[in-house]
From TrEMBL:
<dbReference type="InterPro" id="IPR041960">
    <property type="entry name" value="GGTase_I_beta"/>
</dbReference>
<keyword id="KW-0460">Magnesium</keyword>
<dbReference type="GO" id="GO:0046872">
    <property type="term" value="F:metal ion binding"/>
</dbReference>
<keyword id="KW-0812">Transmembrane</keyword>
<keyword id="KW-0637">Prenyltransferase</keyword>
<protein>
    <recommendedName>
        <fullName>Geranylgeranyl transferase type-1 subunit beta</fullName>
        <ecNumber>2.5.1.59</ecNumber>
    </recommendedName>
</protein>
<feature type="transmembrane region" description="Helical">
    <location>
        <begin position="400"/>
        <end position="422"/>
    </location>
</feature>
<comment type="subunit">
    <text>Heterodimer of FNTA and PGGT1B. PGGT1B mediates interaction with substrate peptides.</text>
</comment>
<dbReference type="GO" id="GO:0004662">
    <property type="term" value="F:CAAX-protein geranylgeranyltransferase activity"/>
</dbReference>
<dbReference type="GO" id="GO:0005953">
    <property type="term" value="C:CAAX-protein geranylgeranyltransferase complex"/>
</dbReference>
<dbReference type="InterPro" id="IPR001330">
    <property type="entry name" value="Prenyltrans"/>
</dbReference>
<comment type="similarity">
    <text>Belongs to the protein prenyltransferase subunit beta family.</text>
</comment>
<feature type="domain" description="Prenyltransferase alpha-alpha toroid">
    <location>
        <begin position="9"/>
        <end position="337"/>
    </location>
</feature>
<keyword id="KW-0677">Repeat</keyword>
<keyword id="KW-1133">Transmembrane helix</keyword>
<keyword id="KW-0808">Transferase</keyword>
<keyword id="KW-0479">Metal-binding</keyword>
Amino acid sequence: MAGPNRHEFNWKKHVRFFKMCLQVVPGRYASMDTTRMTVAFFAISGLDMLDQMDAIEKDRQKMVDWIYSLQYLPNAARSNEGQCGFRGSSTAGRPFDPKESSRNPVPHDSGHIAGTYSALLSLLILGDNLSKIDRPAIVAGLRKLQLSDGSFSATPEDGENDMRFVYCAACISYVLDDWSGIDRPKVIRYIKNSLTYEGAFAQGPGLEAHGGTTFCAVASLVLMGCLHEVISPSQLDRLKRWCLLRQQSGFQGRPNKPVDTCYSFWVGGTLQLLGVFNYSNNLFNRGFLEETEDSVVGGFAKWPDNSPDPLHAYFGVCGLSLMSEPGVLKMDAALNVSERSAARLRGIHSLWRDSADGGVPPLLPLEHTAFLKRCLMALPSAAATADASRSPPKHILDSYLILSSTGWLWLISVCVALIYSITWMF
Ligand SMILES: [Zn+2]
């Protein structure tokens, strides 16, 4: 609602809620313990979307160490690469040690595809340069998880396989900039076979169309860069129609189901990837999210008058990002992170590709990058005091962040940033 009666979301409480999710959560969330890495991703990415990463700055390195402690590394002979990836949590009982003992798994230990997806994106958002990831091992682990029908299991032992894990596999491949862990023709066939008579995607062939799985299918095709080659124009039209019809006030996941906070992202994000989000009604969508916001402890619940949880808190914020809510960063819907973090990933990819071409520039230690970033950010704010009518040019920081992560180029980046800043100030 525009005007003086417009509801203001209480971002301070949402920040506090996400911080709580990274420390201790109420007992009713005990069942989430085996997916602690994914809960952490919701909180870390939620804080990023609210541009509040400073709120966890003092614990940032501890979080990075904890995430790396969940990495299942290969043994010396690399004979166990099929087990590799990131564990979903430390629940299996392996003692915390972010260093070499990661190579000593406990019985029935292995990576989990959702844990790997959550860990990689969380490391990226936390500012890690991903240099301690064993990329070949994760790709080998991914290859082991693909089944003959093209879908993916969550773990080497797991019987569960569906579109959720197809999306995780696509995201992991995109982040690692390596698609050799996926048989693309097979996975594309699986996605096509999951398109239902209703016009949207199901978890697998012969099942019911669903908002969450539709997002997973469409985002996977977008990440693979083949949406329009795989889905015909008439199929795309039916898909857009199905998604738009899911809006009641907020969005529902299936026909005849109640609206639910998370579908403001699952269906909203799909509409954005299809280029028709502008045909949804922001007033109704935002109004529903106002009802599911918890005004006491922060976060969003699934439904009005329910308790908030990390998943719905995060996707409530994402839904608002799609509607360009002030105070929330724009997001890269396919990758499910802020555009800022997605841009940072592209900088890391450039670095990897340069290294693969022969040059191996040493990486600038992360602490130096953070320090230089703070120095640079101080310049525009000092100048803004003198002239509040001018806002700092965003490209300074973007240029700086990409250049500063490329080893010896940090010196050039600082010079470029300073020249830009001085030019802008005067
Ligand atoms: Zn939900």
